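Hey, I'm writing a tutorial for new members on how sequence and structure tokens pair up, and I'd like a real worked example in the thread rather than a made-up one. If someone can provide the structure for the chain below, I'll link this post from the tutorial.
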Amino acid sequence: MTTEPDPAAIAAKLRRTDTEEQGAAYLKTLRLDREQLLAVAAALMITRIPAGLSMKKLTERVLKQAIGARRKFEGLRSW
């Protein structure tokens, strides 16, 4: 029996992740399909996702929202 991943739990873990690279590695281990990744995006309250957005771009957007935006807000982002 396969258990569906919990989008809210994935989003919470991504929010606690230090770098986008670590977040990308975590998402890769989950092997989410497009619908599951969209559910994670919804849990992160990402709006206006174009229907034709590639998985790569969608993943980047999820990581930027969960990790990059938080780090920028905290003043930890290095230029």
